[in-house]
Structure formats: C-alpha cells, structure tokens
Amino acid sequence: MPEIVRVNMRNGQITRQDNKGYELLGGRALSARILLDEVDPTCEPLGAFNKLVVANGLFAGTPASSGSRTSIGAKSPLTNGIKEANVGGNFSWILGRLGIRAIVVEDLPQDDHSYVLIVSPDEIKLEVRDDLKYLGTYDTTNKLLEQYGNRASVLCIGPAGERMLKASSVAVSDPQGELKFAARGGLGAVMGSKGLKAIVAVGGKENKVEYHDRDAFVTAARKYTTALATSDKVKNVNQKVGTNGIFLAVNAMGALPTRNFSQGSFEYAENLSGETMYETIVKRGGEGRTGMTCMNGCAIKCSNIYPDENGKKICSTLQYENIALLGSNCGMTNLDDVARLNHICNDLGLDTIEMGATLGIAMEMGLAEFGDIEAAVKLFQEIYDNTPLGRVLGNGAHVTGEVLGCRRIPVAKGQAFAGYDPRALKGNGVTYAISPMGADHTAGNCFGARNEVDPLGTTQQGDLSRNTQIKITTLDCLGLCMFARPPLFAEPELLATMVNSLLGTELSVDDIWQIGYDTIKMEREFNLAAGISPAQDKLPEFLYTEKLEPTGSVFDLSEEEINKAIVE
Amino acid sequence: MPEIVRVNMRNGQITRQDNKGYELLGGRALSARILLDEVDPTCEPLGAFNKLVVANGLFAGTPASSGSRTSIGAKSPLTNGIKEANVGGNFSWILGRLGIRAIVVEDLPQDDHSYVLIVSPDEIKLEVRDDLKYLGTYDTTNKLLEQYGNRASVLCIGPAGERMLKASSVAVSDPQGELKFAARGGLGAVMGSKGLKAIVAVGGKENKVEYHDRDAFVTAARKYTTALATSDKVKNVNQKVGTNGIFLAVNAMGALPTRNFSQGSFEYAENLSGETMYETIVKRGGEGRTGMTCMNGCAIKCSNIYPDENGKKICSTLQYENIALLGSNCGMTNLDDVARLNHICNDLGLDTIEMGATLGIAMEMGLAEFGDIEAAVKLFQEIYDNTPLGRVLGNGAHVTGEVLGCRRIPVAKGQAFAGYDPRALKGNGVTYAISPMGADHTAGNCFGARNEVDPLGTTQQGDLSRNTQIKITTLDCLGLCMFARPPLFAEPELLATMVNSLLGTELSVDDIWQIGYDTIKMEREFNLAAGISPAQDKLPEFLYTEKLEPTGSVFDLSEEEINKAIVE
Predict the structure, then answer these.
(1) Distance CA B260, CA B509 (A)
(2) CB within 8 A of B339, min separation 6: which ones?
(3) Domain encompassing residue B181
(4) Which residue of A has its CA nearest to B43?
(5) CA nearest A34: which of A92, A90, A82?
(6) Would the CB atoms of B404 and A388 count as touching at under 8 Å?
(7) What percent of chain B has pLDDT above 70?
(8) How confident is the prediction for chain A on average, in pLDDT?
(9) Do A44 and B404 touch (CB under 8 A)?
(10) B385: number of Cβ within 10 Å
(11) Least CB-CB distance to A405: which of B49, B163, B538?
(12) How many Å lie between the alpha carbon of A536 and the closest alpha carbon of chain B?
C-alpha cells in the first residue's frame, strides 16, 4: 500500500503511514481531501496551521505516458483558498516507485535554517542545509543533483519562495536536470514559510508500485501511450513547437493578452509564434533542442531548450502561457527577450504567468515602457535584491496593482489571468470566475473547444467550462498531463481500465469523471469555509466595460450562464 | 424637507431632491441605506460603480451639543465592505442649516482634473481647481477658506486620497480652521478616485432646519447640553486632557498597543499620558491650547493645539488613538515626536491609526528602528514622493504587512486595530471581529465598561460588544459625537424627545436604539452581498497564540461568544 509521509517542521518528526482510506485518491484529490480534513480553512496561508501536500497521482511510477506528475496543494496565499498546481519532472516517477503517495509538510520551524528533506529507499530524513539559503532554483538543483546523482529528482523553491513572496512557484527537476514548475497560487511561499528549501527523491532498484493486474494495466497503458505518440497533434505540433503551437491561433481570435490586457492581438505576434520558435531553435542549434520529455517515458515531448545566437541556452522551456504573459502582455517583440525573462522567473522561483501579468501592470503604471527588456530585467533585479519594490512585484499582480493604484488588474480570486483574455474566449472567463483555483487555464481551458462553442457567444459557456473543469480535474487526480487528453477523452474506457487493473476497482467511465467532480466539490467546500463567498465568483470590472480589440468584445455573460459552471 | 444632492462626476450634472422616504435616516443610517439601495456590493471600491455619501445626522444644524458631525460612507477599499467614518468640524452644521441632508458623489470623471464642489445658499456648483492638485490638507483648506471666508467649512482630501492610497482620510475644518478627520476605511481614496478634491460649505443667513416643535426640541437639547457640560468627565477630563485621559488606564490594564502589538504596556507611558500632554501644553503656552471645540456649540471641547518648545503649533489635535498608535505602537518616547507624525498624517490626509499600525509593522520588519523619529519621518517622505515604498505604506497595515512578509499584522477585515489590544480588552476584540466596520473602536468600544465586565474574561464580551455597537451606531445616525454618550445613555428619553420634537414622530426609547440596530443590519447585509462571509469574522492568528505581557493573556473567546455580537 502506498505510504503517506508526514514531516513536522516544528519538532522535525517524520512519520510514515499507509494510505488507508485514501486508496482512490491521488494528486489533486488527495491534497483536497487532506486539506479539507486537517486544515482550518480560515487559517493564515503562511502560518503554522496550513499544510503543504506534495502528492502524486494514481499512475505515478507506472509506464503510463505523462502519468507521473507531481501535485502540490495547500491553502494559497495568493487566492486565500485551496490551491493545487501540478508539474512534470521526474520527482513523482521516483516517489511512485518508492511506494510513496504523498508528503505532508506541517507546522513551522522554530529557527531560521534552510531544511532539505531526503527521501531515499533507505530512509527519509531532514537536513539543515544553510549553504542553499537564497540560492536560485538552478544552483540549488545542480548542487543537490551533484550530491545525489543525476537519476535523483529535486523539488525546490527559489529565493522568492524563501522570502514568502506570493507569486512563488515550486520547481521540479526532469530527467535532463532541467526544471519544470508547479507555478500557480504561490505554493512556493507556503513551502518557504515552512523553512523547507528542497526535497530530494532518490530512486532505488526496487519498484514498489502494486498492480492488481499488471498485464491488463500495461496493455491498456501501452494502447493509450501509442495512441498518444502517433497522434497528429503530438507528432506534428507538440514535439515540434510544444504548447506554443497555439500562439497565432489565440492571436487570430483576438484573445492574446497584449500590453496588460488592453489589446487582444499583437502586431509582433509572428515573432513570438511557435513556428518562429521552432525555426530559431533549429537554426541556432548548439544547446537548442525541441521534442524533449519532462518525465520518463512521456510521449508528448513538448519541452525545449531555447538558445541564443551562439547556441548557448537562454531558457528551458518556452511554453505558450509564458510567451503570452511575459511576451505580448509586456510588449516584448522577440523570443530572446521572453526567454531571458522566463529564465529569471524560473531561477527566482516565480510563476511566469503571474509575473507577466504583474510586469504588464507595472508597465501600464509607468515603472517601465512596454517592450523595454532592460527595464524589465531591472525590475526583476529588485526582487533578487529583496527591495520593497521587489517585494511588491514578487507578491504578484493583485498586490502590485493595488499598491500602484491600477484600475485594470487582470486577476480572479487574487490570481492573474493565464494567456487568454476572457472577453474573446468567454468560456475561459467562466473558468477564471468559478474555478476554486482562481484564474487558471489548467483548471478548465475552453480554447480547444472553439469549433463547438463560439468563443464570443453568450451561451453554452457555462456548461463548456464545467465539463472541461471536471474532466481535467480527473486527469490531475490520476497524475496525467492535460496534453495527454485527446486519446483519453476520445476513449475514456482506457482510463477506467487502467484504474481498475491498477487498484482492483470496478469503476465505470462515469465513475472516472466523478473523481474530478468530487474533487472540485471538496475544493469549493474548502473555499466557502475559508470565506470565499459566491460573490467573489466575478471578474474585474474593466472586462465588463472596456471593449477588447480587434473583436470589440466585452465579457457580457449573465450571472446565470456563469453559474452553470458551479460544481456543487 | 432636507435635500439630497447628487453630483455625477462623469457628466458634471448636479441634481437636488428632497429626502422623501429617507426622513428618519441620517448619518450612518442614511449612507447605509443609499449604498444598499444603489451600489452593487461586489463593485470595485475605487471604480465607477461605488458612491461616496457625505451625510449629516438628524440633529445637524440644531443647537444640540456635539450633534452636527459629518458622516462619510462608501464601499471601502480597505475592508472591501461598507464603511462609515464620521467627524466633527463645522461642515454639517452649515449644511444642516442650508437644508441639505446629504451629498452623493457618483461615477468617475473622464479627465484628470481636480474638482471642488461649492455648496452655498445661492447655488451648488462644480469647479475645476487644478491649483489644489496634490496640495496638503492644510494648504487646501487655507486656500479655500481665504476665498470663501472663515465661516465656511472645507471638507477635503490630501495627496494620499488623490493618489487613491487606501489609508486615506477625509478632512473637515472646524470653527478655528483646524482640521478633523473622518479617518478610517480609506474613504479619502474613494473621494480621490472620483476626482473630487474638496467640498466647500458656505453658510447663509437663513436657517432651513425644520422643527415639528421647536420649543420642545430646544428645551430637551438644552437639558442634554447642560448635563453634558456640567458632568465631571467633561469638566475635569475632556476639556483638559481630551480623549487622551485614558492613556495611563489602558497602559495599566495592559491593552496599550506597543511596538507593533508585541507588548501591552509601554515603559515610557508617563511621557505620552494625558496629564503630561496637558501640562506641556499649558507650560509651553504660545499657540498651545486645550479645551477647544471642534463644532459650533460643542460642550465637550476635547480638542487641543500641541505646541513645540517655542510655543509654535506642531499639531492639532492630539487624541488618544493617535498617541497610542503613532506613539507607543511605534516606540516613540515623547509627545513632540507623536505630534510631528500626527501632523504629517493630517497633512497627507492619512488615517493616524492605520498609519501607526503600518509604521509598527515596517519597524518590526526592519525598515526603521522602533522609536526612531527621523527614520519614521523619512518613511512618510516616501509617501509625499509617491515612491513604490511610499505607496505600500500609504495603503495601510494589511498591504504593508503582506508586502514585507510580516506574520503579525494587527488588522481585522483589512483595517488596523485601534488603540486597544484585543488580548487585554476582549470586548474590543469582539467588535473588531464582528462589526461590519472592521477593526474600529468607534464601532463599539468596550473600554468604558471595564468595571462591569472583566476585560480579560471569556464571558459577557459578546453581549457587551453588541449592545455598545447598537447604541453607538444610533449616535452615528443622529449626528452625535460618541463622547456625548454619558448623559444620553443615562437618560435616553432625551434622545427620543429630541427626535420626536424635531420630526413629529412618536418614537420610544427602544425605537431610538432600533435605529442603530437596523443600521448595523443593513451594513451586514451589504457586506454579505459583497462577499465578506462570516468566516472573515476573525482576528489574526498571532492574537490566539502569542501571549501579551504584562497580563500574559491571549485572545481566547469561543466562536459562540464572539458570534453573540452579531446583529442580524
């Protein structure tokens, strides 16, 4: 039976228990359950009573492609509600094979040390590692991988998390030692509040994943993985241009965040497109790469290394959201600038989406010109230097907008919009408003459904958002990447077969989606108890009154339409 | 019939209507009713859909002592709920006699001008006065009084309000041309958001106050005023040491905010006491004065001018809350320093309570040493200079604590505690937690009842807070000062007689208190609709876990006890 490990930061005690009672719960569902059972929803997110749950999904450590994501959950300092952010990398592939389902970090330390938790086949132990204090995520990871070997995986925070800045992310290393980020919701600040700088997962020879029927699982997993690997989208889009394949499409529909969400398309969009990105990486060569995996055995391979003119790596990995928020939303006219900002965010351990929105606000309020890369880099230097201005920016879009007196703050429930303006992709506006996660594209992205539902229309948006939210949440609970969804949504029986053969259950396809449904219900219950009332299921006023060009659209859905997306 | 004047800042339109339907509503009750009827509770406080209500109480313009306070109401940018702050000064005495019950400021201007509203017997008009832009409250007031005469009264904001900083107050001039402040809740920022720099009330010869039975009113008002003027407390305390008469008593009970609420008593308390203040003012002479009125005909006379060693005015007026928050809470060891900070807050148009709490946090987080007056003045200079740090501080304790990463933030519903630590005066903790006003001593101060209810006890606090809240709210609706309460609470029939003889009603004493009750109910209804759920009726965690010396007390009331104070 998979274990749940508890680490108490006040007394250093580490306890291990099996996951009895939680057998069907993985990833986002498990952290929702633990938080709802054990954490006072009204607690202060950075205080002693919050808990950080690092969980993997039900498929962790199995050969199912893209199935070993790491889910981080806690009450969020950004939204003041429950939050889950999940991420690739190899951490949960190792943990799954070590027979560990989750690590729950509790209470606060009574000293000011930097702690690292080592999880290995031999032992689980907490070490004081003040040599890592305020190191960037890359230096932290490299130092720990040097020590524990390249096959280990590091989960860590950067200086932003240690300083409890609310835009802080959690980094996880991938098989190449590159970093992926559980970026949203400021969960890095929760980890930082607990004095925990990193967790190292060290693999062993033994594989503790238990299968009810291994052959049946492997057969189904292979079928799914093959369908994924051979699909047109994966072969021709994901493996070449990664998630940035949609850049020009979002621009064409007029939903591209541009200059602090004041325009829906960008005159330099071509420069930032997936096609340009791919060609540039191929042309420049050197350390540049496309089609990289971020988890062992992943068929999607959407990661990349973006090199400079000399072939030297600027950043890994460029993805759509980052390019939209740090790029067009800040008026940056080329990918070199975006890659530079992206790398800085990664190194500080900051959410690129939140920081792109934050920078957009700062630029609107005159702290820098839109498109001025050097001025933007200087603003990030303030965060490195931990100045008051740096702390404002590192606390994200809402705080920055409030402090600077900006009336156009693109957030919902305290969290910045992702790369889709709700006025031109209204289904995402519904998700931003209703999801317990705040403005979050991974919580229910309606972009893919634009052929079924008019993105500018005022009907069907609530149902679309709700259905997408539920299905994606199921993937979050199983540990699957949302980009694995095409074959799984097309043939959901595969999901049921994999779960049943793994656990010995007899779940139907409906039962599978019920996992997502139940999880969102738990999250909403937590948020209501935390004081996030339905009156907060609302988008900022400027979306209702300010027309977005080129469509001239405003966010004009009725409350009734929006509320159709509520899961209760 | 008294008029309600509406000013639309978008189109400059001014409309006048009688107060039909609102006859029984004054001050806080009237603004609650107008906001509940006309403002979407989920609106953005600094946006187009909020309204600023400048209302006077039912007794405005009458000879009832201390009965012409000005009430400012709006959705607060600090608490995100409904807010009312009331203030002395001569503004509402003039408005009452002009036959105006309220001015409702609506929408946003479409330009960047500074507007002044002139209200005179001849006309009501809006003027562009860019010469006043970013002037301090004193310069603004002096310039307008020079123009409109010393018998006019100016209601204005300082640069903080114009810059929409959330700790901004609204200033009102008194008969001496000194300023009083409707300080709490950031209502100055709402006024600033609307481009309104000032309102000038110019009196006329005619007195439009309508009495149902003038003689009966005057008889009752005289009886009340005499009782007030001849009471021991007014003669021996208020007129000498003002509200600061309680300083040593609060210190002795261990409830004095000291060094960011980390102690309940201050080793330099003697230096800051009312007695020291009085002796210093008398000894230094010059411009120094005690026993000053802030409204025509007020018997309490608790205002003062505090002079420097050469007799030159540093500040008017020093009051208990300001001395507690800017003094002991910032570790300031003498009144000269407090007066200096107080004057700066007044000039910027900032709430001294909010700023004292803010400075305490900044000091705890290392931006200045406790007690370092020059460092404190430098921090305020950042606000004058509108730097990012200045904007952080000017947005109050909650934002400052969040940005600086402080875990000890003394606020409830986003607003700073007043001068009573809830651990040693638990009734005030209940008021801070439950009142729709957020942490606000004027919303239900339980200090005066310390002989009836043990301030450290865990019972009777809910009922005490509730009853105090209701009665004080009634005074807020009538336009009366809370320091007029002793004779009114002792003989509430006087209140009923005054209201009935004024309006021709037949209200009983119970009906009089019902005014307060109904008002709080409206406010709570607004807040619930605004998304402030009962889960937010809570105090910060450090009060529950950190013992306050010298009593060693924590805030340990049960939820049940706290919730007894809810008016619903």
Answers:
(1) 41
(2) B306, B314, B315, B318
(3) 3-201
(4) A541
(5) A82
(6) yes
(7) 100
(8) 97
(9) no
(10) 10
(11) B163
(12) 6
Residue B387, in any domain of the structure: no
Tokens of A96: 């799954």
Considering only alpha carbons, which residue of chain B is nearest residue A160? Answer: B405
Mean pLDDT score, A272-276: 97
Q: Taking CB atoms and an 8 Å cutoff, what residues of chain B touch A46? A: 405, 407
Place of tokens 């994966």: A234
Residue owning tokens 């406080």: B45
Do A165 and B531 lie within an 8 Å CB cutoff? no
Residue B441 — very low, low, confident or very high, per pLDDT cuts 50/70/90? confident
DSSP annotation of B350: B
Q: Which of B403, B528, B543 has the highest number of chain A CBs within 10 A, making it the mutation to test binding with A? A: B403
Establish if B23 belongs to a structural domain.
Answer: yes
Per-residue pLDDT at A247: 97
Distance from CA of A332 to the nearest CA of B (A): 24
Within a domain: B274? no
List pLDDT tens digits, range B151-174.
999 999 999 999 999 999 999 999
Select the residue of B388, B528, B541 nearest A388 (Cβ to Cβ). Answer: B388
Of chain B, the end-to-end C-alpha distance in Å amounts to 31
Check residue A449 and give its pLDDT: 74
The CATH number linked to B29 is 3.60.9.10
Place of tokens 């000291």: B258
The span from the CA of B338 to the CA of B266, in Å, is: 14
Q: Does B41 touch chain A (CB under 8 A)?
A: yes
Q: Angle formed by the axes of helices B509-530 and B27-38, to 10°?
A: 40
DSSP state of B136: -
- Burial degree of A213 (CB within 10 A; 0-12, 13-18, 19+): middle
Using a CB–CB cutoff of 8 Å, tell me whether A388 touches chain B.
yes
Q: What is the number of structural domains in chain B?
A: 1
The three-state secondary structure class of B5 is strand
Structural domain contains residue B197: yes
Per-residue pLDDT tens for B62-93? Answer: 999 999 999 999 999 999 999 999 999 999 99
The answer to whether the CB atoms of A402 and B389 lie below 8 A apart is no
Rounded to 5 degrees, φ, ψ at B284 are: -75, -30
> What pLDDT shows up at residue B449?
74
Binning pLDDT at 50, 70 and 90, where does residue A388 land?
very high
pLDDT digits (tens, 9 = 90+) for A290-314: 999 999 889 999 999 999 999 999 9
Mean per-residue pLDDT, B32-38 = 98
What local confidence, expressed as pLDDT, does residue B276 receive?
97
Contact B388 A392 (CB under 8 A): yes
pLDDT band at A441 (very low <50, low <70, confident <90, very high): confident
Name the closest residue on chain B to residue A388, using Cα atoms: B389
Going by C-beta distance under 8 Å and a sequence separation of 6 or more, which residues neighbour residue A245? A237, A238, A274, A320
Most B CBs within 10 Å: which of A393, A533, A562, as the mutation test of the B interface? A533
Query: Which chain B residue is nearest to residue A367, measuring alpha carbons?
Result: B388
The mean of the pLDDT values for chain B is 97
> Which of A41, A46, A532 is nearest residue B407 as measured by Cβ atoms?
A46
> β-pairing, B70-75 with B82-87?
antiparallel
pLDDT greater than 80 at residue A481 = yes
A391:B405 CB<8 A: yes
| Amino acid A114: pLDDT | 98
pLDDT at B235: 86
Predicted confidence band of residue A67 (pLDDT cuts 50, 70, 90): very high
CB interface of B with A, residues 107-166, below 8 Å: 163-166
Tokens of B23: 């006859």
Nearest chain A residue to B398 by CA: give it: A399
**pLDDT on residue B451:** 73
Residues of B in contact with A407 (CB under 8 A): 44, 46-47
Q: How far apart are CA B422 and CA B408, in angstroms?
A: 14
